[in-house]
Amino acid sequence: MENIIKVGMADLKASHHPAILTTLGLGSCVGIALFDRTTKVVGLAHAMLPDSTQVKNKTNAAKFVDTAIDLLVEEMLNLGAVKKKIVAKLAGGAQMFVFTQGAELMRIGHRNVEAARKKLESLNIPIISEDTGGNYGRTVELDSDSGMLLIRTIGYGIKQI
């Protein structure tokens, strides 16, 4: 029997094998999928904003890329993952709307992906694949058995990374 664990927006979950972690509707949000190949401990975060240091209300660490990754790694280590064995996959970070003014500030998707890359690099967690950018939403499923990230899109089909 499959153990399917739903991860909401501004949420994160970690689990032992067997599990499938899934999150719906990654638009400009970034999905950060972490996997330890040896212990098969998995983690998935659905982060909305790149940087917690820019806001006053930080009550939800999962909302921000920087704090979500720290918390997710911590939860995985508590479940027996080995930090140096963890690899990452990224999905989402789309540009869902077109803006004419204040373009850089509004490019949340791009900024989320860049923040995830930077944070993972600082933790020495390699990104082994990603499906980011574009202008469409994604739904993802992370399989603890293989570490495979299944990405479903409307109009762009299904792919595995």
From TrEMBL:
UniProt-listed InterPro entries: CheD-like_sf (IPR038592), Chemorcpt_Glu_NH3ase_CheD (IPR005659), Cytotoxic_necrot_fac-like_cat (IPR011324)
Name of protein: Probable chemoreceptor glutamine deamidase CheD
Gene name of the encoded protein: cheD
Native source organism of the sequence: Acetivibrio straminisolvens JCM 21531
EC category: hydrolase
Family: Belongs to the CheD family.
Coiled-coil region list: none
MF annotations from Gene Ontology: protein-glutamine glutaminase activity
GO terms (BP aspect): chemotaxis
Record keyword DNA damage present: no
SUPFAM superfamilies: CNF1/YfiH-like putative cysteine hydrolases (SSF64438)
Domain of life: Bacteria
Catalytic activity: L-glutaminyl-[protein] + H2O = L-glutamyl-[protein] + NH4(+)
Keywords noted in UniProt: Chemotaxis, Hydrolase
E.C. code: 3.5.1.44
